[in-house]
Write a structure and sequence with these properties.
It is built from 6 helices and 5 strands; from the N terminus they run αβαβαβαααββ. Strands 2-1-3-4-5 form a 5-stranded mixed β-sheet, with helices on one face.
Length: 171
């Protein structure tokens, strides 16, 4: 049974029943973000409904499932670029330590689970974003012309900073 908040939220879609949805985002862009709830990245970037395929998970990690979604979006929906946006005070940088978290969860539940093997904790957000870019760009089914750019949001300055790789040329 749905709780009252879920029921209230599910009723909010009544205003959108006449909206026509398309599998092809107008901006031909995939946006991967952290699931951070304290800022509205779509609003900050000026994005509207239907402009991007949005993917999100804790820490903005390019997982096997993200790759699966990127491949389908790129090859079957015509997206030609991807933007990865993480943030400086992410739980992955501030609170998570893979070994400590696994130990804590095993202690709390009394079970040592084999999955997930890690939680993708990191200490340097720019390095983390760089790794995510490389995970996409090095997949053999990603076309050479598919553009991937990475950014991190700094909550203290409200600035969005591009992560530059190699010769300081954005990719």
């Amino acid at each position: 049974m749905l709780n009252s908040l879920s029921m209230d939220l599910s009723g909010n879609n009544e205003n959108d029943l006449l909206t026509l949805f398309s599998a092809v985002p107008k901006a031909k862009l995939i946006l991967l973000t952290c699931t951070e709830c304290s800022f509205d990245l779509e609003q900050m970037l000026g994005l509207q409904l239907g402009e991007v395929h949005q993917l999100s998970n804790i820490c903005g990690v390019v997982t096997k499932d993200v790759i699966r979604s990127v491949l389908v979006s790129h090859h079957f929906c015509g997206t030609s670029q991807m933007m990865i946006v993480c943030h400086k005070n992410c739980i992955g940088a501030v609170l998570l330590d893979d070994d400590v978290l696994r130990s804590q969860l095993a202690s709390e539940t009394g079970v040592d689970a084999a999955y997930p093997k890690n939680f993708f904790a990191f200490s340097d957000v720019a390095q983390h974003v760089s790794l995510q870019i490389q995970r996409v760009k090095t997949h053999p089914w990603i076309s050479a012309g598919f553009q991937v750019r990475g950014f991190f949001y700094d909550e203290l300055t409200a600035g969005l900073h591009e992560v530059l790789l190699g010769s300081d040329i954005p990719i």
